[in-house]
User: What shape does this take?
Amino acid sequence: MNWVLFRRQLADRIAFVGAALATVFGLVFLFWILWTTFSNGVEAIGPKLFTEMTPPPGADGGLLNALYGSAVMIVVAIVVGTPIGLCAGTYLAEHGRNTKLAAAVRFVNDILLSAPSIVLGLFIYELIVVPMRHFSGLAGGLALALILVPVVVRTSDEALRLIPDRMREAAFALGLPRWKVSLQVLFSAAMSGIVTGILLGVARISGETAPLLFTALNNQFWSSDLNGPLANLPVVIFQYAMSPYDSWHSLAWAGALILTVFVLALNITVRLFARRRAFK
Assistant: This one.
């Protein structure tokens, strides 16, 4: 008997069984979470959920103001964070490349990418909320933008570096300035990766609760004022889930289901968009 071959085959089978068991273990808990969220949240899904404000204790209501506030702060985060992330990613891929400064920026970006969101929320709290002496939707949007920026930087940097150098050389040979090469040639070629990064960043910030507790807090009523506390879905879910009222528990499950479906839809959109661009 070839003992070397036997040991290799045994190690291969053990690794295969271990990987299969780990996959099944993860999938069981994933489907358990999805089923629990769906079965508890679907009961509260209805027209009132999208047309009425968050209710006082013991009353019926919906999540209209919380959905609106979350949408406003996500838009603020996209408007503020996307240009910063794209500019930084373009610098790293096109100008900095393999310099020491670019390496340092990538290292700091990786730290921000893995930093706990509550730490970033505390940073915005000290920077904006404390000087202004009140919570605000603007501070919440900026906290979410701070989480979005590292995702956009990493994805745009990697997407631009995947473009072959001969494409840049061809554009420069035509006499195009560097900024026009970046905007009209490289961004177009890397559009799939850039859009994917932005959508993944939006998916991440959509469910963040900790930074909003220190910045936007919450608002029981409808408000479109970015200079004051703004209702938002993650904090409403947190507060209602911790309450002793059954009606609030039902709304918290419905909010969790809406967030889950939204993030799932974003991820499916990312895959469809990337696949369509790949076939072009």
